[in-house]
Amino acid sequence: MSDNVVNSVSKTLDKLYGEPLKQLETLIGATGLPVYKDPKSGALLWVDVRELRLRFTLSVNKIAKFVDGLREGKLLYTVCKRCGAKYFPPQADCPRCKASDMEWRETSPVGELITWTVINVKPASFSHHADYVVGIVKMPDGFNITAWVEADPKTLKPGMKMRLLVDRRPGENYITYWFKPA
Amino acid sequence: MRKVAVVGVGTSKFGNRTDVSLPELAWESVKEALDDARLGTEDIEAFVVGNVGGWSSEMLPAVVVGEYCGLVPKSGVRVEAACATGSAAVRTAYHMIASGEADIVMAIGVEKMNESPTPTVVEFIGRAGNYFWEFENFGLTFPGYYALYATAYMHRYGATEEDLCKVAVKNHYYGSLNPKAQFQKAITVEECLNSRYVAWPLKLYDSSPITDGSSAVILASEEAAKKITDTPVWIKAIGYANGTANLSKRLDFIGLEAAQIAAQMAYKKAGIDPQEPVKYLDVAEVHDCFTIAEIMAYEDLGFAKRGEGYKLVREGQTYIGGLIPVNVDGGLKAKGHPIGATGVSMIAELTRQLRQQVEKSRQAPIRKGMALAHNIGGTGHYAFVTILSLS
Ligand SMILES: [Zn+2]
């Protein structure tokens, strides 16, 4: 099986949470209770035996054109047909004039880097990645875009030109977007 | 609107509190606040619980805390405003009294973050933005959001990682003097500079810890307050505002617009000249979830000009004896940051400061009788600025 986002995340979570789960099984087998003494504080702890798994399903129904765009290698934003307001992330509704009639446009190919960080301590569901750079890029279309930046962070400077890419993310194999120095 | 006073305050020991459950932790500060006001649970007409949760087991923390602390069937409700949840609880309690609905209300902030392993907590806080556009695809973390501000601020104004570390050194110093702080050890600039990066350019020692803790304050109407205490501390003003969920929609990354608006609102209500707020204030608590946040707070509050906040800490102006003492309880950085309790604990601390009841080594001189709390939710997603006064 090739690496994709689902098995990469599952494998990492197994690594993070699998070992404590085995210890819990052993503990219950030996003592009849999921209870142990915290080695640091000496406090008595009950380990929850009812694991809760969370995986949400989000509606992208009203921004289906955005999803179509990704499939075609394009990043789309919306423009309100009535008042001209521009939205990225794309919105289906315009709170400025209360209209819901949107035109879909493709974002410009190049923007300017405003700021960035390197995520060294990662969330559980991203810990299969090496440290990654997240930046905010100012687009000539009149909005900013947050995305990963594929570059050595030491070479980055505010104002640097950044090219937008829409493609399958290496190692995760689903289509998303990121920047690269132009 | 009626006048509202703080008449009782309590704060638990902050830290990794494996020794207590969530309601037991809440009770520690509830009991201290009741004792401080010499009241019983029967005197509390309503209560507001600030808790963010997710990382802890209780889905309905307000009812669990209400049951354990003997507050049932008084009207109780839970509020949430990310890391400013505590201030939202105080604000809700304040409005219940100011409006005339109740005379004595308790605001309780409580958080048990250590019920989940650290990677889960990192994941939960990282999701605290605009989920799909910041986390799902880009895995931002809470330090990461503030790091985006740190990078932009440092490039624009020439502040260095050493400047940021000076905030940590100050707050750890005061934490070492506060028996309730999570960290009670002073640190050096070198130790901070040598700590590992969590979200470049922010390091471990630039960051507040994962904390369990609780804090409670009892608020009362003027009439009730005068019967309860000789030293009421008045809530002069609460300013509050929101920022966009998605950081990419912010104007710049050198300050928090929500905090600037909240400060202007509070200064106006309290009669403080926004050009020179330090002339009116004896001491301040500001939201230093990361060192960069404290520096931006100096500027957003008008303690320093835009781009000069880091010079205040460089010159030691926010120690006791300087221009204005800030976070002399250790701040979020060293006292700890139990998300829902933080804002309440700021009000508890400032009340004790104004009453001159804290440990002598960290007591700010009280001459003007006014203090300020600045509590931010998320990365400028929520902002509360509260002004307390002896008169
Ligand atoms: Zn419109």
Automatic annotation (TrEMBL), chain A:
Its name, as the record gives it, is: 3-hydroxybutyryl-CoA epimerase
Which PANTHER family does this chain map to?
BLR3430 PROTEIN, DNA-BINDING PROTEIN
- Bilayer-crossing residues are none
ChsH2 rubredoxin-like zinc ribbon domain: residues covered = 68-103
| Alphabetical list of Pfam families matching this protein | OB_ChsH2_C, zf-ChsH2
Q: Which domain of life is it from?
A: Archaea
The chain positions of domain ChsH2 C-terminal OB-fold read 104-164
What SUPFAM superfamilies does the record tag this protein with?
Answer: Nucleic acid-binding proteins
UniProtKB/TrEMBL annotation, chain B:
Q: Which InterPro entries match?
A: Thiolase (IPR002155), Thiolase-like (IPR016039), Thiolase_C_2 (IPR055140), Thiolase_N (IPR020616)
UniProt-listed GO biological process terms? isoprenoid biosynthetic process
- Domain (Thiolase N-terminal) ranges: 4-223
Q: Where is the Thiolase C-terminal domain?
A: 241-389
Q: Which UniProt keywords apply?
A: Isoprene biosynthesis
Q: What SUPFAM superfamilies does the record tag this protein with?
A: Thiolase-like (SSF53901)
Q: Which GO terms describe its molecular function?
A: acyltransferase activity, transferring groups other than amino-acyl groups
Family annotation (Pfam families): Thiolase_C_1, Thiolase_N
The record's listing under NCBIfam families reads: PRK06064.1 (NF004720), PRK12578.1 (NF009228)
Among PANTHER family, the record links this protein to: ACETYL-COA C-ACETYLTRANSFERASE, ACETYL-COA C-ACYLTRANSFERASE
- What's this protein's name? Thiolase domain-containing protein
What species does this protein belong to? Pyrobaculum arsenaticum
Its taxonomic path starts at:
Archaea, Thermoproteota, Thermoprotei, Thermoproteales, Thermoproteaceae
